[in-house]
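Re-run with default settings, no changes from the original entry. Doing this only to confirm the output is reproducible before filing.
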Amino acid sequence: MTGQILLVEDDRALRHSLAQTLDLADISVIQAGTYIEAKDHITADFEGVVLTDVRLPGKDGFDVLNLTKTRDTDLPVIVLTGEGDIPMAVQAMNDGAYDFLTKPCPPDTLVRVLKKALELRKLTLKTRNLERQLERGDIAAVNFPGPSPAVSTLRHALRQAAGLKVGVHLSGPEGSGKRIAAHSLHELTDNTGAFIPISSSDISPEVLLKATGDAAGGTLCLRWIDNASAVQQAQILALSDHPAGFRLVTTSNAPLSEHLAQGMQQELYYALSVMEIPVPALTDRREDLSLIYEAFARQAARAINRPMPVISPALRAEVSARDWQANLPELRNFAQRLALGLESPQQPDEKPGLSEQVEAFERGVLVETLGRTGGRAAVAANELGLPRKTFYDKLKRHGLKPEDFRRPSD
């Protein structure tokens, strides 16, 4: 078979006739007479395309189209219409239909349009599969998971920097993951050498001579350059003009512009600020906190040979609502304590109000449900018993997008 079609047509005789035509063209057909019969076949991993009549009993072809676009915006839908329904078909095209065909449709026209749509679907799924393989092998996605705009920007910047032969400065608050970002950049780059991290406070001519030799073909990471003395700044400046035998990555707890205002040498500032990448604090990554906590909880459970602890919606909501002032180390500590069965750290004296707690809980439930359903919005809305519009209104209010939760296996 060259492909598969979900045929939604309430006229039994016409449906069987169309199915026979497609079968002769080596196209497999799933037959449905109503929206209800069709809906369970429409999934993000459906390998075929949808061919639907406009007029159906109960929910019509527009409902089939809307459901399809909710589950997979790239799944082609071809609309069948009578002569009098052409304006409706044009409207369907405006709503995202791939094409429309008038009844009765010449068999060669029908087969040609469907095979073209099937080729597009095949290409779309192949591209997605390749992207998922890249995602699984993308250390930036592994080390910095989540759907937040801040971390999406960070991942993009690291991938972009990996292909450029320039020095990079990573700035961000303590515990935000600057060393992880530096190592991610090293792994993303086509390296032949090692990743060598040293503290700027340890810099001396002897240390630098050894470090540059060890980092040949790899990455030299100078951490906490904001603590460097005037002499050490001069040594870093000399190092920034090194031959292209390794990549120089520097880190500090604040943007370089702040260090310049506090006395950093101008020459060093301009040498390091060619490419500066901010690493966001956890307060800017609330959408990611549940995923990060889950990863820490899994690591902690494995380390003590215990089963993965249950992460309830309430716990996810608590994790997402709290301000982790110490960033990743504090969140990791919290996960380890729960894995060990110890009490969680003492909560701040100032408790959030009822409305804030309700909002945090609702957001946590939405995040947990989207994560569990792999970002399939229709499935998540159904599980929560919410009308589609209400569900999407809530997602918009909380700044959530279903596509950010889709997993490689979905």
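The first helix runs from residue 12 to 24. Confidence is low (pLDDT under 50) at residues 345-350.
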